[in-house]
Amino acid sequence: MSDQSDVQIIVSKLFGPNGDNLVGLSDVTFDGFPAITLSVETPDGRCEDVHLSPIHGDARKQGYTNIPVGTRCRLMCPVSKQPLRKVEEIDDSFGAGYYALYRTADLSEASVVMISDVWGHYHSRVVDNFELISAWGELHKDLAGE
Per the domain annotation, does 11 fall within a domain? Predict the structure, then answer.
């Protein structure tokens, strides 16, 4: 069995619900890799772009980030303004859901990245050919009760 502790998954292409590529929409990078850009709407109606690290398991982000931890957000494509599709509930006490971003331009359900809609609830999954290839779950210290 090989040690895979130094393996990183870098998302180089990711598509919204209408097939728009969300990687590299801005000049924001993380460790030299172009950011994933999403539009995030908070309950007060404010909607702005957030640039997420494309490195799976990396919580860094830029842009609209002064959102209170625990806020449930509406996640949208910044190009089409279409909401992301909810794919499943996350079985925990926060009532969060997973929302789909597609890894292929044909929007295949077999290859998706799923992210949580609760700010500070760092849960995501990478699925390839209907197989879970990476899962990351962490809570912001305010949600974790630290």
Answer: no
